[in-house]
Amino acid sequence: MTTRFLPPPGAPRRLAAAQLANSVGDGAYYVCSVLYFTRVVGLPAAQIGLGLTVAWAVGSVAGVPLGALADRRGPRGTSALLALATAASVASFLLIDSFLLFLPAACGYATAQCGLSAARQALLAGLVGAEERTRVLAFLQAVLNGGLALGAAAGGLAIAADTATAYRLVFALDALGFLICAVVLLRLPAVTPVPAPAGGEPRLAVLRDRPYAVVTFLNAVLLLRMPLLSLALPLWITERTHAPGWLVSALFVLNTAAVMLFQVRMARPVSDLETAGAAVRSSGRIMAACCAVFALSALPGAWWAAGALLVLGAVLQVAGEMRQSAGSWQIGFALAPAGRTGQYQGFFGTGVPVARTLGPLLLTSLLLLWGIPGWLLLGGLFTAASYAMGPAVGWASRRTAAETAAPGAPAVVSG
Hints:
Blueprint: H1 11-41, H2 45-73, H3 75-92, H4 99-127, H5 133-161, H6 164-186, E1 190-191, H7 210-222, H8 225-240, H9 247-267, H10 273-296, H11 303-334, H12 341-348, H13 351-370, H14 372-401, E2 412-413
């Protein structure tokens, strides 16, 4: 029975172990980092926001060449080195005492994280067959959420203690998690590097691939659901509804548990571009319904009525999230030409930092200033992006088909 919640044995299970190792530390880091930077280091909130915005912008740009490096030098070794770099960057936060030191440390952290994500995707592509990748990614997402939940609980203990030592232990835990991640990644089979492009072919071909750029942009729009749950919805609940504030935490737990339990099941029907497009369109419709329900929670009435609407909206939100995730994983991999998985995944992954940096400003302005009309507009945006994904994927897949003469997929070698 427990195997239902575990990825297949071999490489997928080791990839999950690496994911768990670093996600526990990340969960603690996410809930404690801002308090550490403000209370221990003494940075103003405005400087922290500016520094993180710059850092994730740098990281999103660096993800493409680091992904290409994984293609050319081998994704296993590159992933392990970037995991070590992430551990070092997390540890460097313990030494900062000013914004001038915080900014390069944050840039190093974001760069290593974005590069590691791209390199691990290239490693997965080399170790797992195309027909199994979406299913394995669903397992990894479930493991990620479980690790983040455990880490958040540990971070809660640090917040309760509210001492400099407790916060520093959280950073040490995160750094240790990435060290363990590097060790686990090195125990995976090696994947043969892909030779550098011959002749005059550009090294970073993804930057000239307009169809893939459109697909990546639409995916970034759909990823606005990320700051919706973590930032916009908590502000909406506390400022615009009569629901109790503790519901913010309850909805986060609901989302995390649902992904852990149902992400693999939601991803099961997704096996090709056609089913991936259907999953994305379905996610757009569900997110539109979710936004309409959240909007209704601001209407006058009893607190329990607002709470019930918020819970219903959160259920719809996580259902849309899981469908969108499954569809986007399949699309991102299927449209990447053979031998360029790392750089293409590095580019596709820019949607995450873009959503994290621009999303908070966009969503708080749209929802808190416009209220119910803002929610309805956001729902329309999700629907439009999800339905535009189909034609964009068709355009990109025709480009991929035209490159059938490209080198084959990298082979697995012992090591």
